Write the structure tokens for this entry.
Amino acid sequence: MSRAKGADVARLITLSRPALDELFRTSPPGEVPVGDERGTVLVARGAALSTVVARLVRLIAWKGKVFDADRGELRNKVTPFGVRAIRAKVYRGASRLDGGECTVLDYSRTSALAHWIRDEIREVAPGVHLGIVYWGRRKILNFALSSPGSPASASSRRASQQIAVTVRATVPPDRVAEVQEVLAEANRRHAGGEFIHFAEMAGVHFARLVLVPEETDHTGQTMPASIVYMSEADAPLDAHLADLVAKAGSGLGKVFGHCRNYPPDGAPDAARVAWLRAHCVSSDAFYVNTVGRSLHQIQQEARLREAIQEFLDRRGAEQATADPAEVRAAIQRYVAGRPDLAWARSGPTPPALRWQIREAVHLAGVPLIALALLPVILIALPVWAVVLRWRERGDVPSQEHPSRDHVARLAACEDFATQNPFTAVGLVKSGRFRRATLTGVLFAVDYGVRHFFNRGSLAGVKTIHFARWLFLDDKRRVIFASNYDGSLESYMDDFIDKVAWGLNAVFSNGHGYPRTRWLLWDGAEDELAFKHYLRCHQLPTQVWYSAYDALTTRNLETNASIRAGLFAELGPAETRAWLALF
């Protein structure tokens, strides 16, 4: 049997039911799909009607399947939000159509809802599978699955943008101890991904749960304790919240169930999604190491590197004496011959045009508005500078050192992977002046990281995956959270050495920060005082999840470079440099 030439999804939509059956019979089992597969229903009712039905079904009901090779199973992406549900076992077996080998998607042991359903698929083109749906013994429908690199999906997929999701809810004073114990137990088991099933959710890069303690502000008012959920995920927000509710298991209720008006057990998922949406907090600044690099892309490029490395390892000493161009050509042939790596022939898909337009408008719009306000700025700036310096002279730095117990609690949540989380909360200095200054600084930070520092470096610091800054409690407190490579000590040293002025611009507006001069100087340059300040304000991140905890930012960039250079036009020197990436 051989694959039919040109059997892409666009052609499959035009085929009749007998033609689809004949194509299935003459196609090999092919490779078992890996990862996210785009689904298309084939109703075999003519090209026009079939196209309309396929698009409608994908919009409101079924978007495809996600294959987990390690577990030998899949989950369907259903509802308009692409929620992963309806699990099936995946294995090789005999087809009910012709008795030949195929890949069977069996729901009989995994789903009460789809107990009588059985799917069979065969690969009809590189990265394209044709499927048959059976209800019992009766054949009822056909469908297609296309991998990200297949012709059917390359034009339809767009790079996802990463979003900072923050959900915050206050915890009643009499429930704080219970929430602390729940988080502590999860940390003792080092089971952030088990407490809430983040790995089953779509597009979650990192996630955490943190208890922000009760604190008293400068006027003596109490700011209540709160539980904060943060994640860095691929857009959109509503799909992420729906997925969180569907996949969280009991973990979500164990923490937010202590908060006011959280829907009780038995309440519909829509009620929980609405509650989470109502408690979302926007970030005032959000840094992404590389904008547009989705979780799917990261996982694909990691698999590509592993596959090529295994291929090179099998060649052994042979490659050491071979011409670099010949080695690269052999790698190209190997990748081209694997349907599961077909996507590597092309580069990542660009962001949606709408997103690009919005970013361009923001990039140009902010300076234009500043230009229009220039007369006001020129008058206000000297006044602001005088007030700033006057207040700086009166600042009283904190002399507090972190206690051994506090450092021990922090250490218990660190250094379990290549990466670490950092979460800190602090009181903003009293008065409208400092709140206004910090608001302006964070606006400038957000503009900078949104348009300039979004290609692997935050002003020279290259070890940060994501970072965010946001106000809490009517701008009386501010929280900073990041995901970084290496140890906290090296992380702080990196910041102090390369961007101390940036630390000062933000954190000097915090109560007790080492004294600064003209907002940007001194402050963090007192290394020991700065480190004491940071540790005192750091919170234990007891529930934390990373989707790729063995990959550093440098690994991600290397993997992306491998993909970019694989089929690109390279000269001799560039070819040698590309091979040196392995």
Remarks:
- Residues 1-6, 149-158 have pLDDT under 50 and may be disordered.
- Residues 295-315 form the longest helix (21 residues).
